[in-house]
Amino acid sequence: MNTNRTHPQQRLFDDRSLGSPDEGCCGECCKPSCRCCSRRALCLSSIILTVGTVLAVVGVILALVFGIPKSPPGDLPNNLPGGLVFRCGNPQFWVFTDKKCNNFNDCGDCSDEIGPYAGCAPCGVYWWPCIPVDFQYCSSIPRCLCRDGRQHCYDWSDEYTCPKSLTC
């Protein structure tokens, strides 16, 4: 009996063997009992984990060096002429004056469309006055949405009493 000869299963942990079929290790595609394939998966997992860790460290370093972007300053309207800016009901929010009284909820609380500071005229001929169900509108909806089979006003007046307009 020759003692120098190694059994193929003993070569699984040999430095030269990475599971190539020509060396007799894992000749059949990755069985759960195959130690070479498990070793390959462990190596790939380690490499992926190392690359992910390096990318995370680089991201943190870049954030510390260049700083994390900050939200725009709330005092921007103070740097603009007063006629260009309308302060919303919530003083942290503002819109340009051309967004005021345009029948759209630009402030998020309808303060740019209704209320004492907005000073908007009643809705025009292409708008139907009602309490809209859509957050997009405040005190009226476009008439082209009337009689379209979908509720746009809380009282359903857009479907039952509003005459439809062809233009929107």
Map the helices and strands.
Elements: H1 35-66, E1 85-87, E2 94-96, E3 127-129, E4 140-142, H2 157-160
Antiparallel strand pairs: 1-2, 3-4
Offer a quick outline of the entry.
By secondary structure, this protein is α+β, with helices and mostly antiparallel strands.
What does this structure look like?
This protein is of the alpha+beta class. Helices cover 21% and strands 7% of the residues. The chain is built from two helices and four strands, in the order H-E-E-E-E-H. It is elongated, with a radius of gyration of 35 Å.
| Biggest sheet architecture | 2 strands, antiparallel
Helix content: 10-25%
Overall, the morphology is elongated
Integer average pLDDT: 77
Number of strands: 4
Distance N terminus to C terminus? 96 Å
What value does the Rg take, in angstroms?
Answer: 35 Å
Query: Topology as H/E string?
Result: HEEEEH
Spans of at least 5 consecutive residues with low confidence: 17-24
Structural class: alpha+beta
> In what range is the share of β-strand residues?
5-15%
Question: What's the tally of helices?
Answer: 2
Spell out the key features of this protein.
168 residues; alpha+beta; two-stranded antiparallel ribbon; two-stranded antiparallel sheet; 2 helices; 7% strand
